[in-house]
């Protein structure tokens, strides 16, 4: 079992930046492929970014490509999402997700992940 806890959300103005953190316990993240998803009110949970096991392949949704950066620190059992140039449409609850895997791959569907955090709210005000 992996327990995931997100932090770093908050209220930020348009064009601002935030860094989200996903801290894991229970098992090492080094054996897991991981991702960030988000869910806005009244909408389905959507893919934001994914990062594989070493060598850390990455993938991004078109809506965040060039603005967000996903990274991981296996020694700290932590994953990050650096969010720059934030827009009002980035407002959502952000969730981190993990799946144990033999292969280093990126996955972008909700049902491909086994473990989820409780979410952290990001609000971008105009």
Write the layout of secondary structure elements.
Elements: E1 3-7, E2 10-13, E3 18-25, E4 32-39, E5 46-51, E6 58-60, E7 68-73, E8 78-83, E9 92-100, E10 115-116, E11 120-125
Parallel strand pairs: 2-11
Antiparallel strand pairs: 1-3, 3-8, 4-5, 4-9, 5-6, 7-8, 9-10, 9-11
Plain-language structure description:
- The chain is mainly beta and 126 residues long.
- It is built from no helices and 11 strands.
- Strands 2, 4, 5, 6, 9, 10 and 11 form a 7-stranded mixed β-sheet that branches. Strands 1-3-8-7 form a 4-stranded antiparallel β-sheet, with no helix packed on it.
- The protein starts with a strand and ends with a strand.
SS elements, strand count:
11
Order of helices and strands: EEEEEEEEEEE
Mean pLDDT: 97
Strand content: over 45%
Q: Which structural class matches the secondary elements?
A: mainly beta
Based on CA atoms alone, the radius of gyration comes out at: 13 Å
Tell me, what's the shape?
globular
User: Given the structure, what is the number of helices?
Assistant: 0
Instruction: Enumerate the spans where pLDDT stays under 50 for 5 or more consecutive residues.
Output: none
């Amino acid at each position: 079992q992996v327990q995931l806890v997100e932090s770093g959300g908050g209220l930020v103005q348009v064009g601002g930046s935030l860094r989200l953190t996903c801290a894991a316990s229970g098992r090492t993240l080094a054996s897991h492929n991981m991702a960030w998803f988000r869910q806005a009110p009244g909408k389905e949970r959507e893919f934001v970014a994914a990062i594989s096991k070493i060598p850390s392949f990455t993938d991004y949704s078109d809506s965040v490509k060039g603005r967000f950066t996903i990274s991981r620190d296996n020694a700290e059992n932590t994953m990050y999402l650096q969010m720059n140039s934030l827009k009002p449409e980035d407002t959502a609850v952000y969730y981190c997700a993990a799946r144990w895997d033999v292969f280093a791959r990126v996955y972008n569907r909700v049902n491909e992940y086994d473990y989820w955090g409780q979410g952290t709210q990001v609000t971008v005000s105009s």
